Amino acid sequence: MTDTVDKLVVFLAKRDGIDKLVKTFQYVSKLVHWHVEAAHPDIARRAKHWEVASGLSRKAFRSGRFLTGFNALRRNPGSAPLFRFLAVFANAGEMVYFFFDHLLWLSRIGVIDANLARRMSYISAFGEALGYVFFIIMEFIIIKKGLVEQRKLEAMKDEEQVRKIRDDRVMRLMAVAANIADLVIALADIQPNPFCNHAATLGISGLVSAWAGWYRNWPS
């Protein structure tokens, strides 16, 4: 492995596990704050501090992650024209999300103008939502192709390859679950509404995404 971007992406990817752990902290504390806010304000205050600290920590851990989307487009945008089209929008959305998320973090901690935070948050969430929509479509296309291939292999009684396709499908369904959950969170920033912005919706969505990520990243 001699390519610098490849090395950097592999290095950055090692933080996915800690990100999912801290994401669990973030959204568990959000649910705790919502549940005890009226009856136990002191506990709610501490839970809120934990949630905010976890959110800011995750933004720091994600420094440089916008390069992942860039490298995916540079290295392997897909073989079929449709898949290349979807990959461009999915990875471009992810790049916008992570890049402006870095600026949002700098704004929140006071390195740059704090008044920029709302604008950075909106742009980041918009790119995030765009990326998730196209990633979800890509996953369903691959799942559909896998089902077709599985039926052929079952007719040939190739159990080993059938098992691999089934395992891959589980991982892709976990990715879809995480992307849908994160899409709900992004929509709460883009177009605030009573459903998406409710603490229970955000907390449950965050935990679905985090735990799907735990499953996908846990060493087999």
UniProtKB/TrEMBL annotation:
<dbReference type="GO" id="GO:0044375">
    <property type="term" value="P:regulation of peroxisome size"/>
</dbReference>
<comment type="similarity">
    <text>Belongs to the peroxin-11 family.</text>
</comment>
<keyword id="KW-0962">Peroxisome biogenesis</keyword>
<dbReference type="Pfam" id="PF05648">
    <property type="entry name" value="PEX11"/>
</dbReference>
<comment type="function">
    <text>Involved in peroxisomal proliferation.</text>
</comment>
<dbReference type="InterPro" id="IPR008733">
    <property type="entry name" value="PEX11"/>
</dbReference>
<keyword id="KW-0812">Transmembrane</keyword>
<protein>
    <submittedName>
        <fullName>Peroxisomal membrane protein 11-4</fullName>
    </submittedName>
</protein>
<keyword id="KW-0576">Peroxisome</keyword>
<keyword id="KW-0472">Membrane</keyword>
<feature type="transmembrane region" description="Helical">
    <location>
        <begin position="120"/>
        <end position="143"/>
    </location>
</feature>
<keyword id="KW-1133">Transmembrane helix</keyword>
<dbReference type="GO" id="GO:0016559">
    <property type="term" value="P:peroxisome fission"/>
</dbReference>
<feature type="transmembrane region" description="Helical">
    <location>
        <begin position="82"/>
        <end position="100"/>
    </location>
</feature>
<dbReference type="GO" id="GO:0042802">
    <property type="term" value="F:identical protein binding"/>
</dbReference>
<dbReference type="GO" id="GO:0005778">
    <property type="term" value="C:peroxisomal membrane"/>
</dbReference>
